[in-house]
Amino acid sequence: MSESLSRNSVVTKLREQIAASLGAEAVILHLESGIYYGLNEVGARIWSLVEEPRTVQALIDAIVAEYDVEPEQCARDVETLLGRLVEKRLISISPPK
Amino acid sequence: MKMHDDGGIATPNNEGHRSNGGATHYRAYGITIASEIDLPELPRAPAGAGSVADLTIRLGTVDASDAAPAAAGSRFWIRGGDACHAYKGAGAFLARAGAEIIVDPLPGVAAEVIRLSLLGPVLALALHQRGLFLLHASAVAAPRGTGAIVLAGASGAGKSTAAALLCRNGYALVADDVTALAPSPAGVQVLPGYPQCKLWRDAYEALGYAEEELAPMNPAYDKRALRTASHFCAQPLPLGGICILDVGEQLAYEAVPPQQGFAEVMRNWYGARFGSGLFQALDRELHLRHAAAVAASAPIVRLTRPRLGLADPAFGGRFAAAIARAFAAGRPA
């Protein structure tokens, strides 16, 4: 994740994908590349949260509230996941308005 | 009987594949099939119930000239609701919107060679067109009502052999080689195929069958058909589990986590044998939803067995017990 990521940046799902739940986990198909990606339970929860565009901070807060995790650790994990999803062209992160 | 004006129908070549005039009604994979080709592998539809067929099989002319190479000597094309599968040494087949199969045999081909393609990949194409999710797998019914156990795995892992072995140890056959799954909001159902298991010579000999007890198939392969009418489950069953078979040092099993389970379901999707053609043409979202539902609705277990296990007379009982234990926990919460 780039240094410039702001906690107020807005996370939006890109359209070129479809996803399905796999019990508590999830699987995403990137339509253009035909590649499947797996999400673990927390990843799947974040994926469902960004059904509506949300800020990075809102995602971190939601995960901290739902899981037994330290806020700093959670922020690092969420940012790492978001960075990977951007890289795979599954989400976009736009600067705060 | 319907009258057809296709050129292929009246030729002496096709004459040998016709039944005695009308179409016979059969049941397989939860549908009624009216076929003018005799299909002795399939159970007959109950009298009176089979007058309206879901799928019609007839002889006709099929143009396979544009077909692209697919698995093991076959060729394939798909255009909208029409999918054509041509098999070297057998003929060309056209599946139309899951409602009709047209069969165009090569001159002089034996009826059982035609049926091997027709009741395997070609029927699978029609079932796919009908919205079912197909696995390259066999399936058996557990003796104590825990649903159907699907037996998948790489070529040579022993899917059919395992199914035949389990049928001698209290299980009933649900399907061999092509397993059709019907995912719905209520769960995933496994549909009964037909009572036959295709076995290589080393497998049926190890299981104690003599060649003459089994029906001939394609003479080019040392493989014969075990008809299992007395050990067949003709009812749809909920999916009880998926067993990925592998050869290893000893009889052992381990649970497969969800993401790997999904990958196994995709890897064993029957449509892969048609090359990329069928996958390119399908409804990706439905396919993904079905594969995820199949992977998530029942436990997936990887089970290894020693290659020489079959030669041990006590192995069948141990194998059946391992399968029972592996899936005893039932559905995941």
In total, how many beta strands of chain B?
20
Using the CA coordinates, give the radius of gyration of chain A. 13 Å
> How is the biggest beta sheet of chain A arranged?
3 strands, antiparallel
Distance between the first and last residues' Cα of chain A: 20 Å
Gyration radius of chain B (Cα, Å) is 19 Å
**Biggest interface in this structure?**
A-B, 14 and 16 residues
The biggest beta sheet of chain B reads: 9 strands, mixed
Shape of chain A: globular
Number of domains of chain A: 1
Q: Helix and strand succession of chain A?
A: EEEEHEHHE
Percent of residues in β-strands of chain B? 25-35%
Query: Helix count of chain B?
Result: 8
Contiguous low-pLDDT stretches of chain A (5 residues minimum) are none
Order of helices and strands of chain B: HEEEEEEEEHEEEHEEEEHEEEEHHHEH
Distance from N terminus to C terminus of chain B (CA atoms, Å) equals 51 Å
How many β-strands of chain A, per DSSP? 6
Beta-strand proportion of chain A: 25-35%
Structural description of this entry:
With 97 residues, chain A is of the alpha+beta class. Chain A has helices at 41-49, 56-66, 71-87, and strands at residues 10-13, 17-22, 25-30, 35-39, 54-55, 91-94. Chain A has a 3-stranded antiparallel β-sheet. The termini of chain B are far apart. Chain B is globular, with a radius of gyration of 19 Å. Residues 1-15 of chain B have low confidence and may be disordered. The chains are: A alpha+beta (97), B alpha+beta (333). Chains A and B meet through strand 2 and strand 3 of A and helix 5 and helix 7 of B.
